[in-house]
Amino acid sequence: MTGEGGFAQELAEARAALAKATASPEADQAVPVTAEAAKGRISVTLGADGRVSAINVDPKAVKEGTDYIAEHVLAALNDALDQRATMVTADERVPDLGSIGESLAAVQDAGVRQLQAMSESITQVMAKLNGHK
């Protein structure tokens, strides 16, 4: 049966695509976010993991004092967090690609075994029919 090989090939390709997605989840990760305050003199960057990866303060802002710096770092940080929140929604469930891959492998293995058994049965029936002619 030629359909059996095609079916197995399609499932193998789907499993390969899933494995690729599982192996490189960074392709689907959030990108770093940078927000500025104090007319661009203070910036805060959140990394792809959502944690603060950098705080930059222009030397001109230092002249304004620590309260000024703290106020604008806080503003930039909150802005960055707000930007990140719009990128990621808590309502979306992240699929477990590993479990999906395992389930797909089990379905493929069972399906291929069943198709092979059906093919053997058809071959036996055809042999019996051809023998009785």
Note the topology:
Blueprint (H helix, E strand, L loop, with lengths): L1 H22 L9 E5 L4 E5 L5 E6 L1 H4 L3 H22 L9 H35 L2
Antiparallel strand pairs: 1-2, 2-3
Protein name: YbaB/EbfC family nucleoid-associated protein
Key words describing this protein structure:
133 residues; 62% helix; 4 helices; single chain; alpha+beta; 2 domains; Ybab, Chain: A; 3-stranded antiparallel beta sheet
Extended strand count? 3
Give the radius of gyration: 29 Å
Number of helices: 4
DSSP helix fraction:
55-70%
The termini sit apart by: 23 Å
Strand order of the largest sheet: 1-2-3
What letter string, H or E per element, gives the SSE order? HEEEHHH
Shape: rod-shaped
Question: How much of the sequence is in beta strands?
Answer: 5-15%
Low-confidence region ranges: none
Instruction: Describe the sheet with the most strands.
Output: 3 strands, antiparallel
Average predicted local confidence, pLDDT: 80
Structural class assignment:
alpha+beta
How many domains comprise the coordinates? 2
Quick structural overview:
Pfam families: YbaB_DNA_bd. With 133 residues, the protein is α+β, with helices and mostly antiparallel strands.
